[in-house]
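Module 6 notes. Inverse folding takes a fixed backbone as the condition and produces residue identities as the prediction. Think of it as a translation problem where the source language is geometry and the target language is the twenty amino acids. Below is one complete input and output pair. Work through it position by position during the lab.
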């Protein structure tokens, strides 16, 4: 956040709309991850306006994707779709396939949250095919985790696990960073939790937790502490659960994370 503030101060001195827009976009992204969604919207909307005034299509499309993600988190589905369709229109005209494929991924998420599972599945299918064609395996795997959530919403955790296992194999084959592996482990755990296979869930939550600890990613450690704790409760291991849940509470309070 301090770096983003410094970047904004420098950009304001330059009076360059694109530079100010990039700084506001970074501020908005940080606010979103800290759970301050209203502040995130203000910064990202400002960035979008500045990019629009600067007239650079890729920047406008990128800001549409970012704003839509925040509105999705706020369950403001209609506004999220409005921005994504605007981004879609821009990317079709500029033939920006990476951005267009990312918009399809985000539309899959939006329609999943709106419980329009047919449209969600269609956009996710387009996105995964697109990322594979682009050989963007990082986003392919990220989309796979989103698809796994769709299947869990449909009460199909076994299918979610099949998708995640395929993504995990690709992640290991392509030597992806530990963070991505940890996210896959977390979603595998969520699928096992839905199956009420709590020992398996604990195994995968713990793997994710250990990776986040090694990375010193405190926000993810806070969440993973919660997931490990809730699983230990289901296994009647209350003393261990208490330790992890207190750790989650302490970290969340320190980091001012309001999400959970």
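Target side of the pair, the amino acids:
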């Amino acid at each position: 956040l301090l770096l983003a503030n410094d970047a904004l101060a420098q950009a304001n001195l330059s009076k360059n709309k694109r530079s100010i827009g990039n700084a506001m976009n970074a501020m908005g992204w940080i606010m979103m991850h800290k759970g301050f969604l209203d502040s995130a919207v203000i910064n990202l909307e400002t960035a979008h306006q500045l990019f629009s005034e600067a007239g650079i299509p890729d920047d406008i499309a990128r800001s549409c994707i970012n704003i839509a993600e925040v509105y999705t988190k706020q369950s403001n589905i209609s506004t999220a779709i409005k921005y994504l369709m605007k981004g879609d229109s821009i990317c079709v005209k500029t033939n920006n396939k990476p951005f267009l494929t990312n918009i399809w991924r985000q539309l899959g998420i939006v329609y999943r949250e709106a419980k329009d599972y047919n449209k969600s599945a269609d956009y996710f299918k387009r996105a995964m095919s697109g990322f594979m064609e682009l050989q963007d395996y990082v986003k392919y795997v990220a989309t796979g985790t989103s698809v796994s959530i769709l299947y869990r919403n449909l009460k199909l955790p076994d299918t979610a696990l099949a998708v995640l296992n395929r993504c995990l194999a690709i992640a290991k084959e392509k030597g992806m960073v530990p963070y991505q592996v940890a996210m896959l482990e977390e979603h595998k755990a969520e699928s096992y939790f839905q199956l009420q296979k709590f020992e398996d869930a604990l195994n995968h939550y713990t793997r994710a937790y250990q990776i986040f600890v090694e990375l010193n990613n405190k926000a993810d450690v806070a969440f993973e502490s919660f997931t490990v704790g809730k699983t230990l409760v289901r296994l009647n291991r209350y003393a261990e659960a208490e330790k992890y849940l207190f750790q989650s509470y302490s970290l969340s309070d320190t980091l001012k994370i309001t999400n959970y």
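Reference fact for the lab report: The mean pLDDT is 93.
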